[in-house]
Amino acid sequence: MNEWITAINDALWTYVLVAALVGCGLWFTWRTRFVQFRMVGEMLRLLTDSAVDTIETQVKEKGEEGRRRHISSFQAFAVSVATRVGTGNLAGVASAIAIGGPGAVFWMWVIALIGSATAFVESTLAQLFKLRHKDSFIGGPAYYIERGLHQHWMAITFAVLITAQFGLSNNSIQANTICAAMQEAFGWSPVWVGAVLAALALFIVFGGIHRVAQVSSVMVPVMAIGYLVLAVVIIVMNIHEMPHVFKLIVFNAFGFEQMAGGGLGAAIMNGVKRGLFSNEAGEGSAPNVAATATVSHPVKQGLIQALGVFTDTLVVCSCTAFIILISGLYDASDANGIALTQSAMESKVGSAGPVFVAIAILLFAFSSIIGNYYYGEANIRFITQSKSVMTVYRIFSAGVMVIFGALASFELAWNIVDFFMLFLTACNLIAITLLGRYVFRLLDDYRQQKRQGIKDPVFHRDLFPEIKDVLEGWK
Question: What is the predicted pLDDT for the residue at 67?
Fold first, then answer.
């Protein structure tokens, strides 16, 4: 079964999805006039402003007057980054380099640079077509497919696929990586580690999106800063090797030797595959949480989510790749995944390296588990409002699949994820390509208001009279 899934994954990834991802990314980059490059300053301003709003809101919620709760733009960003910054950054990068060589890193950068435009489009659409739901908003690809394209069957298909991908199989990857890291560092049994992870995850997910948002907004900055500080220290200590590292990456990405030996295809495929798993641009996952944010204009959250792609791949993934390449172990070790990252760390900081990586991946991957769970929850609510179905899903997502991942082999867990990721991404890319015209008009409206001196542009659904009636999340 594992060999069968591998064959399908390789064929479709090589000939179909790589071309679709790159093609859509280039198209959106051109039609948005390079939004991911031209509006970086605005992205940072919005993130800073929304972080301040989050603190003020949390203070108010503790008082008598603050009974209305909402998910801030910053909290939505934190939850989406929680799912991005995780296993893909430590184990995924190592796997890409081990299989595709150093050149895979270059193609991870490429898919991030052009994919951030795709992330902008999908998250802006999620904001546009969001719905009011109790004390927050709800939305995502299933909702913009249903309300924008009026294709109920396609919306249901997406909802099922993302639930299987993120809520179930993706959580098994996180657990698999955590258990492998703990066993490598401390010799702990995957059975017991998996059981503890499942218990903690179940406790959090039964608290709903507000608990997920609160936990993620604290864990994400802490874990990201801690890992980046150590990575930067290692890189600075070995700064004399960085020219060689960059030469290695570029040479293996375009080298004639790789072309002749078929290694170029492996570098591209694994770079794009692991890049997508890490930053999720175009996969249709981040829009589910982007829709929950309370903002004055859909473009705001689109810009913030595009920034998340840069943060994930160009910063965190690059740090991991540099450490592995500096160590030289990628070519002289049988280790793969998180074990390779731990070995690289050990070679540079001693026996404390594997321990630090184990703790880091625990925080990275565990935050991904609770973030992944919410993607499934949002889409199950799209299909049914049954409380019993939701209870069963919570048990399987945070319990059963976490334990399955703890016990499954590295190859089986990753192959299952790649299989569902193929069809999930294809479904979303079709939808956002057909609906992209709304995003282009929204971006023009946002830029026009900024040119008029308006600091915080405001969206009114009268801008789209043809779909005004389905934009229930806006005035």
Answer: 43
Please tell me what DSSP assigns to residue 268.
H
3-state secondary structure 138-164: ECCHHHHHHHHHCCHHHHHHHHHHHHH
The rounded Cα 147 to chain-centroid distance in angstroms is: 24
For 41-86, write each residue's pLDDT tens digit. 898 888 776 544 544 444 444 444 444 456 666 666 666 665 566 6
What distances in angstroms separate CA 442 from CA 2, 98, 302, 327, 460, one per listed residue? Answer: 44, 42, 11, 47, 10
71 φ, ψ (degrees, to nearest 5): -90, 120
Hey, what amino acid is at 302?
A: G
Q: How many CB atoms lie within 10 A of CB 392?
A: 13
Average model confidence (pLDDT) for the chain? 80
Instruction: Tell me the pLDDT band of 261, cut-offs 50, 70 and 90.
Output: very low
Bridge partners (DSSP) listed for residue 138: 131
Asked if residues 158 and 379 have their Cβ atoms less than 8 Å apart, the reply is yes
* Tokens coding 23: 């093609």
**What's phi and psi for 334, nearest 5 deg?**
-85, -5
310 contacts 317 by C-beta, under 8 angstroms: no
* Cα radius of gyration rounded to whole Å, the chain: 21
- Report the candidate in 98, 21, 13 with the shortest Cα–Cα distance to residue 280: 21
Which of the 8 DSSP states describes residue 293?
B
Token pair belonging to 200: 């903690």
β-pairing, 131-133 with 136-138? antiparallel
* DSSP sequence for 261-279: HTHHHHHHHHHHHHHHHHH
- pTM, two decimal places: 0.82
Are the C-beta atoms of residues 269 and 14 closer than 8 Å to each other?
Answer: yes
Strand partners, 133: 136
